[in-house]
Specification:
By secondary structure, the chain is of the alpha/beta class. The protein is built from 16 helices and twelve strands.
Length: about 575
């Protein structure tokens, strides 16, 4: 970090961050509500004061809000909640026998008859677990959470539904209870021979107007291209951490840039979303739908922020990053916090709505709790996967996400890290997205897939092409870094090449379906076009082998064509950049 950037980073103020957080999180901000609208208006007023050009507008999003839930088992009432995108029961409710299916995996269902019964599942309410319950004919699902019940959304449909996806929503009611009550419920069949479940749920799902706030600060040399820094404003309950503290960091970054007016090489675009919590990223997905070509042509990188500055949030190694963007965050975290950044590969979560246009991503959350042996930590591990992080805190998505859960010093630390990243991305002339790291990652996945299907010639071509692309990118990077003096024309050409390569590599690594649509919010394998190769085995039936071979062959043709295009593109730029 140079001295100018360091001086700006040191201006990040605990007091200002906490003031922003208090103002954003003083009301419950349901997507499309008046309370949320007031928070958006507050953010816009601050941004205008800091000199940003703003655009606050509304669009329709498909929004689902859980209203009420009632649960009785063997005539004993248990407090419960229902979930976004689940169905409502009839006003009279439903009655069904309750069956414990453990963690809700398919194996747990195999030896039990759950048809027309309610299933009891350990963990947070997730779309995958609900889908499995429906697959085996369950009439309802009841989840056992942690010390508190956690608000969740149980649909995989990303953003607003299309005609094709309008039928992909859950068809059964879904409830959650806390851990203590869950253990009591588990004991009922042993004590009373059976458990009869009576439940009612009301969920309001409808098209609502939701706001989006865009704020721009123009770069001086390359103003048409921009870094997008985004976070959602809507909340579960008061949402001081999720996402009030993150909104505060965005406003503090804007304050410091607006008041100090550093010269930015490229532009900075702040984006505040609605529909994250209650519409499965409806706001960011709709923005991508309406601005697809602009994102493809001009967005250098999407930097996202969610749930920062929590008390005891001492783990900084596990945030999401692409391999090509990882080092950007690692540099800031090392310099400001003295921690190593290992990073975690993105899953299909958060407002990561911009992979279709090929925009590289960096971060969602940044700071996490240490793992502990508790029901909350166990639930988070099931949701997010294992690792050195223990999630965002036991209060995440609960009524307890209030201002007292924010650590001013950790919020300042996280704010400084984000500001450092913004300055690095916006002030440095040459884009720092490392395409060589992206190619190396893809090379590893291609090797693994081809090893599983060694007799498929099309995958040998894939291996050759990724090697060819890697060598060409290495040549560009070596020659560019060796230049003693880089002309502005060379920098502009290098940046254009870097962005155009991203458009292909991001799609290859993270997009399975149509790049103009949005893949489901469900687990997705790396290089998803070739993921079926991992299912191939000499031990599976011949018919299945042939189905997999056909699928992989056709998808590999697409991969190979995309790689050929990137090779040709890079060779063209190799000549253009260095003919000066």
């Amino acid at each position: 970090m140079n001295d100018n950037n360091k001086a700006l980073v040191e201006k990040v103020s605990q007091d200002q961050l906490m003031e922003f957080t208090r103002n954003i999180s003083k009301e419950v901000r349901t997507s499309g509500s008046e309370e949320e609208w007031r928070a958006f208006q507050y953010a816009e007023a601050q941004l205008r004061k800091f000199g940003f050009q703003t655009n606050l507008y509304k669009r329709y999003g498909y929004i689902s809000y859980p209203v009420s839930a009632k649960l009785e088992i063997n005539n004993t009432a248990f407090p419960s909640i229902t979930h976004s995108m689940a169905v409502s029961t009839p006003a009279s409710g439903i009655t069904a026998d309750l069956v414990d299916v453990g963690d809700g995996s398919e194996k747990e269902y195999e030896n039990q008859n759950v048809k027309d019964k309610a299933v009891l599942i350990n963990g947070l309410a997730t779309p995958g677990a609900v889908n499995t319950a429906e697959k085996f004919g369950a009439a309802a699902a009841v989840f056992i959470n942690a010390e508190y019940t956690h608000e969740m959304i149980v649909s995989t449909v990303w953003g607003n539904p299309t005609v094709e996806k309008s039928e992909d929503y859950p068809e059964i009611p879904v409830l959650s209870v806390n851990y203590a009550d869950g253990q009591k419920i588990k004991e009922l069949p042993d004590k009373e021979a059976s458990a009869v479940c009576k439940l009612k749920a009301k969920v309001e799902t409808e098209w609502r107007e939701i706001p989006t706030l865009i704020a721009d600060y123009q770069g001086t040399v390359d103003p048409d291209n921009y870094v997008m820094f985004s976070g959602h404003i809507d909340s579960w309950h008061y949402g001081a951490m999720d996402n009030g503290s993150a909104n505060a960091v965005m406003l503090e970054v804007a304050r410091i840039i607006g008041e100090n007016k550093p010269e930015l090489y490229r532009s900075l675009k702040l984006a505040f979303w609605s529909g994250h919590s209650h519409g499965r990223y409806a706001g960011s997905a709709l923005y991508a739908d309406e601005n697809w070509e602009d994102l493809h042509d001009h967005c250098v990188l999407h930097l996202n922020i969610d749930s920062v500055g929590g008390e005891n949030a001492v783990v900084l190694s596990e945030g999401n990053a692409m391999q090509e963007t990882k080092q950007i965050a690692a540099n800031a975290i090392e310099e400001i916090a003295g921690e190593n950044f290992a990073s975690t590969r993105y899953g299909r979560a958060g407002d990561q709505s911009f992979w279709g246009p090929g925009v590289p991503s960096l971060l969602m959350g940044l700071s996490e709790q240490e793992p502990v042996d508790s029901p909350a930590s166990e639930a988070f591990n099931k949701l997010f996967g294992g690792g050195k992080g223990g999630g965002f805190g036991w209060w995440w998505h609960t009524t307890e996400d209030t201002i007292d859960k924010i650590s001013p010093s950790f919020l300042q630390r996280d704010g400084r890290i984000y500001l450092s990243i913004v300055l690095d991305l916006c002030k440095e002339p040459a884009i720092k997205v490392n395409q060589l790291e992206a190619v190396k990652e893809l090379e590893g996945y291609i090797a693994a897939y081809s090893q599983n299907m060694p007799d498929l010639p099309v995958l040998e071509k894939t291996k050759d092409r990724i090697q060819n692309l890697k060598e060409t990118i290495e040549q560009i990077e070596q020659q560019f870094n060796a230049l003693d003096q880089k002309s502005e024309a060379q920098i502009q050409l290098y940046n254009k090449w870097n962005m155009e390569v991203s458009r292909g590599l991001v799609r290859l690594n993270y997009v399975k379906g149509n790049e103009f649509d949005h893949d489901a919010a469900a687990p997705i394998a790396p290089l998803p076009l070739l993921q079926d190769a991992s299912r191939y085995s000499e031990d599976i039936p011949f018919e299945e082998q042939k189905l997999i071979e056909t699928t992989v062959m056709r998808n590999a043709n697409k991969v190979n064509f995309m790689l050929r295009s990137l090779i040709n593109l890079s060779n063209d730029y190799l000549e253009k950049i260095f003919k000066e």
